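task queued by scheduler; priority normal; single chain, no ligands, no partner chains; default sampling; output format set to C-alpha cells
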Amino acid sequence: MGLFTSCFGEAGGYKGTRNGRRGVTKAMIGAPSNFVHTGHLGIGAIQSGGLPPSKDPQKLKALMSQVRAALDEESLFVQDERKTPVGVATTPRTEFPTHGLLPRADTQAAEFVRKYPKYDGRGTVAAVLDTGIDPGAKGLQVTSDGKRKMLDFIDCTGAGDVALSDAKTSPNLELRGGSGRLLRLNPEWENPTGNWYLGMKLLYDLLPGDVRANVKRDRTEQFERKAQQLADMEDSDKDDPEAKARVESLKKLSEMYKDEGPILDCVVFHDGTQWRAAIDVDESGELSHAAALGAYKSTGDVGLLCRKQLFYYTLNFYDQGRTLSIVTCAGTHATHVAGILAAYHPDEPENSGVAPGAQVLSLMIGDHRVGSMETGVGLTRAVNAIVEYGADVANMSYGEPSATSNRGQWIQAVSREVVQRHRCVFVSSAGNEGPALSTVGSPGGTTDDVIGVGAYVCLEQMQAEYGMYKEVNDAVFTWSSRGPTPDGDSGVNIYAPGSAITSFPAYTRERLHLANGTSMSSPNLCGIVALLISAWKQEIGGERISPFRVRNAIERTGKAIGELHGAGLVQTDDAWQFMKKYVKRTFEDVRYTISIDDTSIARGIYLREPEESANVRFFKIMAAPVFPTSPEAQAEKDPQGEHGQQENKLKFDFEQRVLLVPSVSWVQVPNAIYVSSIGNTFTARVDPTQLEAGRLHTATIDAYDSDCVDRGPIFSVPITVTKPLKVDDSATVELGTIRFRPADIARHFIGVPVGATRAEITMEADNSVSQAVAPSIIYLHCLQLAPESRFRKHWLLQRVSIGHKTFGSGGSTTPQRHRSMMPVTGGVTLEVCLAQFWNQVDMHDVKVTVKFNGLVPVSSGGGAFADSGMLEPALVLNGNHLVARAEITSLVRPEYSIKPSATLDQFQRPLRPNKATIFPLTSERDTHLLTGTAIQCLELEYKLEISKDKTSVRFFMPAVDTQIYESWADNFAFSVFDANKRRVATQINYTSLLSLPRQGEYLIRAHIRHRSAKDLEALKDAPLLVEFTLASSITLPIEYSLASVFTDTVGSSTYRGGFLPKGGRAALFFNLCKKMPGEVAPGDILRGSLTLNNVTAKLGIEMIVPAKTKVANETAAEKPLAQEDQDESPAAREQRELEKELRRVRLSWVSKVKEDSVRDALVSELTSSSSDDEQRAEALAAHLKALDDAPSSLPWTEAAHLADDRAQRILEVASELSELVRPLALTARLYESAESDEEKREKKRAEQARSHMRAALQSRCRALAALTSLTSCSTTASEDSAEFVHVDSSTDVTAYLRDYEKAAAEMRQWTDSTTSAAYLIATLPLFIAKHQYARALKGSLDWLEKAPLQASNATERKSMAELRDQMLGKLQWSIWLNHFHAIAPIVSPNAYEKL
C-alpha cells in the first residue's frame, strides 16, 4: 500500500515499508565524484554499445572473452598509488553524460522520437495515479505542441474536501468565518445570486509531512519567541503566591503549547458561469483584494497555499458547489513520476520525459490523512476519472503485497471497464520487494490486464546518475520484485529503466531530483506506450487502439536479458515496427487468459512445496481469448444493438489453430489445439522428479498461431519449479561457498522440516583475497509462501556488509560471520536468496549454512506472524479452567536448555456497534464503474472509554481491514473522535497502533463502502476489536505436573525441563489461577508469547479472561460471631437486623425528599436514634449531600448556583459535621501502616471520617463563595465586559470572605493535592476575589488538564475554558488568549468531520 520504494535503496531515499514507494531518491552512492573512469569497459558496456563498432564478429567475440577472463581473474581494476593507471584520464571529460539523466537510449525511445518527431506523445492523455503532481514543477507546464501539459488535478481521496455552510448573504460584504475571523470580501467578485458559502480547512490537513514540518517549525519558533519575551518580564518572587503562580502558569502554558496550524477560511460563490473560491491563506480575513480561483480544468487557475514554502494548490467543485476540493500533493513521488513520463523542457531537451507531447491527468490516490497511503475511495474515484477524461494510458507507481492475485472489486473494475471496455493501457510498477521469488505486488505484478514493470539499470544510468568509479554489467536492480505470482503467473511482464533525474516539486527547492525504483521504470514504460499510441493515432487512425495490441507488441519485442519466463527490456521502435507489421491482424486485439485446474484455479504452473515436485503431475489448462469491448456497446448507449452486433460477430468469426511447444523436455503437451471464442483446454504433463533439488527450474508452454508462426507465441503458460532440498537428521543444510559478482543472485530452496519453528542462516566471509577488493553489500532474502496470505508473512530481508568499511579485504583479513534468524513454518519450502547489490563492483566469496530448530505444541501448527505483525496463537488457554495442559515435541533435532516461560502483555476487547446505518452516497464522484449506480455506505458507531491519558490502542475488523486490492469492499475507514467532536485519528484500509491523548469517552465511526447494500447487511452488527497494552505484563507459572500447580508437597513446584530428544514429548501445565488485572474484564482475550528455549521461535498464546468470582473470601461458617452476638437471642438479633435495614432505607430517602421541612425532620430522627458519632456523621453527611447537590460543579455554572438561605443551611450542617468527625479524622495518619485486624478496622473508620471532613470543607467553601457574591451564572468568554466574580464590600460579606479564607486554608490541609478537582473548584472563586488571577489561571489549567473528556462534564469543561480565557485577559497575556481563541474551532468543532 503506497508508493513502492526500494526497501534497501540507495542512501537517503524513501525507505520501503508496508506502504513503500516504488521509488528511491538521492541514490548517489559509490566512489566520490572526483574518481575518474578507466578506459576499460565491462561486458555490460559491450552490450550497451560502449565499444567502437567492429565489422569483424570474431574480434568482438575475442574481446568479450578477454573481458570475461578479466572478471574471472579479479583484475578488472588494479590501481597503483605511485602512478596513473593505464587508461585513466588525467583531465576531466569535456561533456556531462546528459543522455543518462533520464534514460531513453537503451529502450530506443530517444531514437524513436528523433525518427518521428511528431510521435512524441502528442494527442494522448496519460493518467498518473499517485501522490498528486505539483502544479509548480518545472517541465510540467506545456506540451511539445504548445498545449497545457496538465489536463486536470483531482484529489480522489477526499482529504482536501471542505464541507460548506448553507447560503449566506451580506450586503456589506463582511461575513464571520469558521475560524472566528471577520472576512471582508472582494467587491469586484461577480456574484449574481448574492449567496456565499463558507467553510474552513486546517492547513496541516493539506500538507505533506516535510512541508508541514517546515511550517510548524517556523510558527513554533515565532510563537515561542514571543512567549519567552512574556515570561522574561515576570518577577520570580517565591514569597509572593501570585508572582509564583504567574511564573508557574507561564511555564505550564509553554508545556501545554502545541501548534495546531492555521485555519483556512474558504468562501465559495457562483459567478454566473462557474463556481469560484477564495481561501484566506494569510489568516487575516482580508479578502477584499484576493483572487477567486475557478476549477483548474476550465480556468487553469493555480494558487499558492504557502508562499514561503512554494506550495501550490488547485480547486475543484462537486455536489452542485456544496463541496469544495482543495487539491494539493501528498508527496514528491507523483511529480517525479510525471517528469519521467512526459516532462517537456524546450530549452533543455536532455531533461525532457519519454513522451514530452503527452498531456497528463493528475489523480491523487495518496491520502494526506494516512501518510499518502492509497485508499479504496481514491482508487475507485481514480478509475472513474480515467474513463471520464478518456485517458489513453494510465500509470500507477503504487502498490503493495496482496493476499490473492488477480482478485478484488477494484481489480475487476480496472480489467473490465478501464482496460477492456474503455481501452486504456494500464501500467503499474511490479514492486521493490526483491530479489526473492514471488515478491511482486498488486496491482502491477498480479493483475492480468495490468502491465507489470520491473526495474533495469543500464550503462547510461550508471554514468550520469550513480557516480560509479567503475561500470558493471547492465542488470535488473537487485531490489526489483520478481515473479511468479503465487498462482503461477509470470508476475513481471517487461522491464524498463528504473531510475531518473527529473522534475521535482517546487516546495523541495530542487528543480530536478534523482530517484530509483520500479516507480521510475513504470512511467518510463508508460511514456513509451504514449509514444506508440501517439504514432498509431497519427499514422493508422481509426477507432481507439486495443490495449492488448499495444501490450502484445511490447512484450513480443522486448530485448532478452535472461530474466524469469523471458521478460525483456522494452524496445520502442521494435514494438512500433511490430504494430505496423501486424496492423491488419485482428488477433492482435485479443489477449488470452490461462486457467489451470489444480488444487485451485491458477494462471501458471508453480510447483514450490516438497510434495508438489515429488511426482509426475498432470494439469488441465484452459486457454480462452479476451476481447476488448466498447462503451458504445452498453445497452443504454446501443438501443438498436449495432455495436453489440459487431462485437458478437467478431467473437463468432474468431478461430485460431494453435501449435503448442514446450521449452523443456520434462514438459509434454499436445502438438495442437483448436481455439474458438470460448477457448479450449489441453492437458500438460510435467515431470519434475529428475530435476536438481534446491534449484530454480523454469519453462514455458508456448502457443503459436499456425497461420503466423513468425509472429511469436500468442500466449505462453509459465512453469516454475522450485524443487526443495531435503533436510537430513542433522537439521542443517550446507549451501557451500558462493562467489558473487555484481548483481549475481544465488537461489536455494529448502524443504523446512515438519516441526521447525526457526531457521538460523549463517554467512561467513574469510576476506582473504590478496588484492584490494572493495566492500560489498549482500542481500539476504528468505521467504516462505502461505495460502491466501501476503508474502511478507514469512520473510526475512537484510542487507549484509561484506568487507571492512572503506578499505579492501587486503587491508584487513579478519573473517566475518553474520547470523540471522527467522520464524519458519514446518513442511513449507523456504527460499534462501542471496544477491550482491548491483553496483558493488568486486567479487566476494561467502559460505552459507542454514540450521533449523523447533519446539511445537503437539496439536498446533500456529505460532507464525500474521499479516498484522502479531503472533498467531499456537495455544488458546481458557482462564475458567484454572489450569491448562499442553504437550510440546521436538521433531527436528534434540533441543537443549528448555526453560519455558509464558508472558501476556496485551488484551483484546470486542465492541458492538451502538448504531448502524446503510445509505447511498450522493456525490457524483461515488458512482461505481461496474454498476453505474451509487456506492452504498455502511456507517457503524462504537463507543469506547479510556481511563488514562496516552493510552495506546489498535482497532481491528478482520472482515474488511488489511485489504485494498484484493478486498471485496470498496473501502474500509474509521475515524476516532473525542468528546469535543475533534478527530484525533483516521485509519483507512490498514489499522495500526495509535495513541488516544486524553482519558475520557471516544466515538469510533467506521465506514464500509460497497456497491451492494444487501451485501453490507451482514456487517451491521460487526464487532470492532480493540487491542490494549497491559500496564504490567502477566507471567504465567508453568509446572511439570498437575499437582505442582496447586501444591509443592508432592514434588518440585517449578518446571525442570532442560532436554528433549528428537521426537520426544513433554507436558506443560499452565497455572491460570493468577489474579486478573483490573483493566481487563471477563471475556477479554489476553495475548502474549510462549518461549521454550533460545533457539526456537516464540509461539503465540491467548488466554480467555475468566468470569469474576462471587465467592466471599471468608464464608459465614468460618467467620466467628462476636461474644455479644453469641449471647443474643434469635428474636433480638432479627430485631436488630430489621432496625439496621430500616435505617439504611431512611438514609437513602434523605437525598430523595424534596421538602426541606420533611428532610430536616428525617435527619433529626436519624441523628437522635444514632448509637454513636459515626452514625450521626453518616446522617449529617447525607443531609449535606442533599443540600449541596452539585459539589463537583464549577461555582459559576447554573447547576451549582446556591441561594443565600440554602448556603446558610449548608454552612450550619457542614460546621456540625466537621466538628463531629475532626477528632477521629485526625487519627487517620496513625494507621497508615496498619497490620493487625483491629488496626485495619480503626484505619477504615478514620478514613471514613477524613472523607466526611473533606466533603464538609468543600461544601463550606462553596456556600461561602455564594454568600460573598463571588459567582455569576451568566458568563461569556467572548464578551470583554463579562465577569466571573464580583465582591460586595458590605460588612457581612467581608466577614464571609474571612471565613472563606480560613475554610480554604483548612481544606488545603485536609486535601492530598492542591491540584485536585475538589480543591480547585472550592477555592478558585477566592483567588479571583483577591485579584489573584494567576492562581486562578493555574487552577483552571490544572483542572482542564486532569478533567476527563466526557459528555457528562462538557458544561464544566466549557465553563472552565472560559474562566481560563478571562484570567488570561485579566493578566493581559494576549499571546496566550489569542492562541486559545484561534485553536478553539480545532479542539472543539461544531460537528464531526466527515470521513
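post-processing summary
- The CA atoms of residues 199 and 632 lie 41 Å apart.
- The two ends are 19 Å apart (CA to CA).
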